[in-house]
Amino acid sequence: MEFPKLLAFCQRDLPNTIKLLREAVEIESPTYSKPDIDRMARFFAREFRRHRGKVSLLENSTTGAAVIAEFWGGPRTAGSRRHSGNRATPGAQKPILLIGHHDTVWAKGTLARMPFRIRGGRAYGPGILDMKAGIVQLITAIRALHALGVEPASSVRFFLNPEEETGSQAFRREIEHESKRSRAVLVLEPAAEGGALKTARKGVGEFRISVQGKSAHAGTDPAAGINAINELARQILRIEKLAQPRRGLTLNLGIVEGGTRPNVVPELARATVDVRIPRADDQARIEKAIFALKAVHPGARLKIEGGINRPPMERAMTKDLFRVARTLAAQLGFEVRGATTGGGSDGNLSAALGIPTLDGLGAVGDGAHALDEHVIIRELPRRAALLAALLATV
Ligand SMILES: [Zn+2]
């Protein structure tokens, strides 16, 4: 396969890519709005069908619908150029899984003050980088492969998650199930700074610590009370000591609440801790340490909930695919680096199951979750071509 042909196709096709991107951005899809997410799901489902995808919508009573699309799922076409499996991904008959999400962090109505617009080689809009452009690039890649008669070595499945931005709880089992039956997982989250692919992600967890003390009058009878805030403060100092920032294990006390009035010994106090872990074996250690916390005051009671909900995506699971992607990018005429990030994605789930995973294959830009969210337009065809080359090679 001559990869420059893929790139040339994607570059010629850029007006179509931008048109579809604009349509996708102009359908607002905040995670918590089921009708809007469903509308976005139907929009992409129609595009996948238009590109010869076999599509099913997975309805959910609380969140919006997820979409599964399968491409090249039928019998192999005679005469088309089929590509053999790569050594990095044994078991050539299993599908390649792509993962994306069609929800955004932006509330409905954001489009009015943050409309789709193109300025200075960049396209702006809510959710454009995270990750509508990633999905649109995949559609361009599929169109390119069809146009050039290139057939991937196995079927290509795409899982479109409706609630990634709130932690992928509703469809976690489906994502894990799809991952397990695949030989490689490619995640369409935005590229890291400078267009780097994401080759390691930290694991993410959240713990809630509640303290039950005893209220009393702070002036007349303070000794009768048990101060829940004092107790929580002591626990916070212990939690802080669990961090190992030099190797990337961090804990953030993000929310603290407690007390009612200055002259009342507070009965209740609560804290929420965000935890980031670099290695899978940190999970058991951190969970054990936090659940082992004991009240300092004999009369105070602690209640601890939560845990690590996304295990880390470790480099061991990404390095072979990254090597392939780097070689393909060089053949397409550009360089890609690998980067580590503290943020989690659905790639954490597949990598933790031992499935080779590569993330950051979506758009190149900046300002995800920020008012200047944008993608760099000249990167759209290059990334679409890289994705097409990966599907044709892996
Ligand atoms: Zn995202």
Can you tell me about this structure?
This protein is of the alpha/beta class and 394 residues long. It contains eleven helices and 20 strands. It has helices spanning 3-12, 14-25, 34-50, 110-113, 128-147, 172-180, 228-240, 282-291, 319-332, 347-352, 379-393; strands at 54-58, 66-71, 81-82, 96-101, 117-119, 122-124, 150-151, 156-161, 184-187, 197-201, 203-212, 216-217, 250-258, 264-265, 268-277, 301-310, 338-341, 357-358, 365-366, 374-376. Zinc ion binds at residues 101, 130-131, 164, 189. The site of zinc ion has 5 residues, from α5.
Brief description of this entry?
With 394 residues, this protein is of the alpha/beta class. The chain has helices at residues 3-12, 14-25, 34-50, 110-113, 128-147, 172-180, 228-240, 282-291, 319-332, 347-352, 379-393, and strands spanning 54-58, 66-71, 81-82, 96-101, 117-119, 122-124, 150-151, 156-161, 184-187, 197-201, 203-212, 216-217, 250-258, 264-265, 268-277, 301-310, 338-341, 357-358, 365-366, 374-376.
